[in-house]
Design brief:
Blueprint lengths: L3 E11 L5 E6 L2 H10 L7 E5 L4 E3 L3 E3 L3 H13 L2 E4 L10 H13 L18 E7 L7 H9 L1
Parallel strand pairs: 1-7, 3-6, 3-7
Antiparallel strand pairs: 1-2, 4-5
Bound molecules: flavin mononucleotide.
Length: about 150
């Protein structure tokens, strides 16, 4: 079966006066509407995401990351399955520490290990893939994921 991957990414735009706005960049909403308009009620849709908890830029500690939140909206809207990409080595809760780890991973072209795999990948024909932008790119763990599927 041909599987369609739809990418969505989340960046945090910090405006002056410390106001934050979350912007989803992608055609994920359009794709979601297309699926709904076609009455696609099969459970052949999956939302895969990587997201981080802990200290985030300018907002303090978060228990649910931005991408996780958007993924949960998609899941609820489409009534589909979800899969979280969880690193074996958790990223530091401290924001600055995390940026250092992420920068080193990018420099090393690392492939951080993921705890789990999607068992029944072939049964999905539409997959939403969500991740934050790290240092202007995908977090390296996303390359691990994309190379493993
Ligand atoms: C290690 C790291 C690097 C980041 N690099 C960027 C960046 O290059 N550009 C940007 O706009 N935001 C950057 N951010 C901010 C995240 O993209 C943003 O906070 C995102 O919403 C976090 O998503 P999450 O809560 O799902 O992990 C970075 C955050 C971290 C932790």
């Amino acid at each position: 079966m041909k599987t369609k991957l739809i990418f969505f990414t989340i960046i945090l735009i910090v405006l002056g006066l410390g106001i934050s706005e979350v912007t989803a960049i992608s055609d994920a909403e359009t794709a979601a509407n297309d699926i709904l308009n076609n009455n696609n009620s099969d459970s052949d849709i999956l939302v895969v995401y990587f997201s981080r908890t802990g200290e985030n830029y300018n907002v303090g500690n978060v228990e649910v990351g931005n991408t996780a939140m958007v993924a949960s909206y998609i899941k609820e809207y489409l009534k589909c399955d979800s899969f979280e990409i969880v690193p074996i080595d958790k990223y530091p809760d401290n924001y600055d520490e995390c940026t250092k780890v992420a920068s080193k991973e990018q420099e090393d072209n690392a492939r951080p290990k993921i705890t789990d795999k999607i068992d029944n990948f072939d049964s999905y024909n539409t997959i939403f893939v969500g991740y934050p932008i790290w240092w202007g790119d995908l977090p390296m763990i996303m390359y691990t994921f994309l190379e493993e599927i």
